[in-house]
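Q: Protein A?
A:
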Amino acid sequence: MLPPAVKISSVLARALRLALVLAVGALAAIAADTGRVQGRVFNPATGDYVRNAEIRLVGTDRVAYSEEGGFYQLDNVPAGAASLRVSFSGYAPATATVSVTADATAARDFELRPAAAGDGEKVQLSSFVVSGEREGNAKAIMEQRRNMNISTSVAADTFGDVTEGNVGEFL
């Protein structure tokens, strides 16, 4: 006859094995009913793909951020219709509904447009000369927003032309 301590540990080990098998089965069932959404975020005004744009699965707390080259990917998206919302500072949010199939990848690319001045109102500008691209500030804000640590990002173009491109002269 086995001592009582051995009987209890044997029963406990069997219970733990059963719980593990059930948990793995539940995770497999969840994964079977999900798919993936991937794509790119593009800015047609500049002709560049956008890094650090926020791609949110509407109705959940699931978020992805576009990487270098504008690529993004959301894993374990429930099968069926999924609504996505892309946002980037200074641009109008873009939304789309994607059909997600279990164990498959749905592709959806987005184009960002500048935020409008107001309810269909046109913005009239006087003539000016464009001497450089000034959207570095928006990129710096999104870089700061995505950073896991406390940081402050400032675009160099915020300071305008640096004398002869020499940072030492600027400082």
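Q: Protein B?
A:
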Amino acid sequence: MTLDYDVCYRAIRSRDSRFDGRFFTAVRTTGIYCRPVCPARTPRKENVDFFSEPAAAEEAGFRPCLRCRPEVAPSTPAWAGSSAVVGRALRLIAEGALDRAGINELARRLGVGARQLRRLFIAHVGTTPIAVAQTRRVHFARTLIESTRLPMIDVALGSGFSSVRRFNVAMQQTYGRTPSEIRVRQPASASSEQSVELKLTYRPPFSWNTLAAFLASRAIPGVEIVGGNYYSRTIRSGSDHGVVSVRYLPATSHLILSAPSQFGNSIRTIANRARALFDLGADLEVISEQLRRDPLLASLIDANPGVRIPGAWDPFELSVRAIVGQQVSVKGASTIMGRIANRYGERIEGADDRFFLLFPRPEVLADAVIEGMPSSRARAIRGLARVVADGTLRLESGSSLEETIEKLVSLPGIGPWTAHYIAMRTLGEPDAFPHNDLGLRKAAGAGITISGAELLSRAEAWRPWRGYAAMLLWSSLP
């Protein structure tokens, strides 16, 4: 990400919140780096450097400010860099790829060499993949220390550290304080011993009503429920299962994630899934600037600012939903998904009556007899389940959009519409675009249904944000 020195300095002088999370200011005289909105006195221009990533600032020897707390800044979108490989790598790192394996495995998943990946990171991020992963672990650990009552061992493991010793060393090196010293005073609002609550920040505007309506109409009975200002669902992590909730607070620029404390060791994965589900990393100012060049999209943005791409909590679950929804109404697809969950899903004993089913695993549906739909569609679900269960297909962010579409359409029963829909919602691909969708063709033609080819040609000017254009067009339909 290229930073303009003069623009950055003007931004910190005005404390412009629009730049929060896009870059960080390092002050050479204090050895501290801050967010653009830091309330501290603005440093002299000749004493500052700017970095696009906290990891780059820390690699250069600066410590995070204890006042503005860079670790809670809105996250820099993974696609902000000019390298597609770096963007996909950042997504995988955020999902914990370097917690479970090394740089060689990450590079293999991206289809490049480890040395080439390091060079790309130095060029586009200003530091190495390992440094980025370490900084994200440390920052998330501090958030858990200050906002929860989790034991330190759960904080360490939940943040991605392989041991408490490494966790202690990293916190001391970054903050100059031990984890216990950071948790000297526990705020009254801290999570209880039975649950963990975290703030998930985003850049406004945020159209909660549009996103909630989209998710509510597609909610799977017995698995998830959407209310006026909350989303809740059943989840599993290893042998643990339970219910997580996300609440919307209109007066703030964050959501509140609540999860049972038993998920302490996997809380970062849960937080990342929640962020992806509500597309909290989107920088709508940048996206809107591109899409506004089309008068139709400009009017839709003005009418409904803050429209985002709904993600998916479980990529396999969403992929099954996409197959079920082929040539079926939204309501009808939800009913069928509820039947599948009821017959093949796992029941949660003693749970709230509204939440009592875990969606079935791929290995369960691989040989399932699925009724209530054409046999070809049922075969497509079984085929998808088999390749996901045996690892042949990995529904993850490491592949490019083209590679993902190619893999999906090679499966029986999955065409371009389904493949693009899956890529858009499960992999966070902002340029995925199911151009043959009847609703999109009708909305783009202002009531007159245009052809898929016409829509695809017009959408060329919307790249690389065609997925957001699709959501704007869908949201304009009755």
